[in-house]
Design a protein that fits this description.
alpha+beta; Alpha-Beta Plaits; 5 strands; elongated
Length: 175
């Protein structure tokens, strides 16, 4: 490949990955085209993008960016996976694909980058066990509402007892 073509491909790759700060790098070698198309469709439904790149070109395109560490030391071709509502959701989906048998048996997470820090495949598997953004928000809302509901119950408890006693006195007085 000529230097001119490599520069064009590098610029195109850099423009496609512009604004991406977290990604997972995966091995897709050995997956046939029909399976790859189905995989891309499945990921697209979850707002996840997958692009197969030559690692040396990706390293040149991401040099000096937050994604740069993801391609250090990699050779050959790999898939860059990014998107989803948050990084943990992305990692959970990639890890689920990594564990699948059958047609996607060759799909393996090689690592990635989160907040500019290089991730190994083991670290990616560890991150997949974290709660996603939606799960964290629901836990936070539960923690915020928990004390409030206890307070309301404590305030209403004596009031409802008093109302019950007044009602029984009124009913006895009417007899």
């Amino acid at each position: 490949m000529s230097k001119f073509v490599k520069d064009m491909l590098t610029k195109d790759l850099a423009s496609r990955l512009e604004g991406v700060e977290d990604c997972v790098v995966a091995n897709v070698i050995g997956i046939d085209s029909n399976t790859t198309t189905a995989l891309r469709r499945r990921l697209r439904e979850k707002d996840i993008s997958l692009m197969v790149v030559k690692n040396s070109l990706a390293a040149r395109a991401t040099e000096g960016t937050a994604l740069g560490p993801a391609f250090e030391g990699l050779t050959g071709n790999a898939a860059v996976v990014w998107g989803a509502s948050d990084f943990v959701t992305l990692v959970k989906e990639v890890t689920a694909l990594d564990k699948e048998e059958g047609e996607l048996e060759c799909f393996k997470a090689l690592g990635g980058v989160m907040d500019g820090e290089k991730l190994t495949s083991e670290k990616v598997a560890e991150i997949s066990k974290w709660p996603s953004r939606d799960e964290q928000l629901s836990m936070l809302v539960g923690q915020i509402l928990g004390p409030g509901s206890q307070l309301v119950a404590q305030i209403n408890g004596p009031g409802s007892q008093l109302a019950g006693q007044v009602k029984s006195i009124v009913e006895k007085g009417e007899e």
